[in-house]
Amino acid sequence: MNNELVEYPSWWKRNWKWVVPVAGCLSLIIIFVLFIGSIFWGVTSALEGSQPYEYALEKINQDEEITGVLGSPIEKDGMIQGSYNYTNGKKSADMKIPISGPNGSGTLFVEATGEDDDWTYNVIRVKITDDESIDLLEEESEEF
Hints:
By secondary structure, the protein is an alpha+beta fold. Helix content is 45%, strand content 32%. A hairpin with a 2-residue loop joins strand 3 and strand 4 (104-115). The longest helix has 38 residues, at 11-48.
């Protein structure tokens, strides 16, 4: 009887035929997810850093009617939807921002146009329920 040890091939030599395609596909999937995530993060941070976003959040936190319903402080509560365009010195923003406070939640709608550093707000409205909506620009025009 021969008592020699039989040398088996290494793990890599036995499994490389399935490891290489699986690793390649996983790498492509991870790269794709990172790419989409970076686009999402860039767009979201651009919308959150815009002047209409900051102005509208400040305005609703100062409004007694809205803070009476939702509580204070009111903050963003989810993913912003919308657009922000800048072309040849002219800007436009159209955003739908989910918001919430300690007592409830709603949706903030902001529409604005601008040129250089000046903004004109067409809509700043908070929709609390399907039936209840508070328009902050109407309140300003009634005060004058």
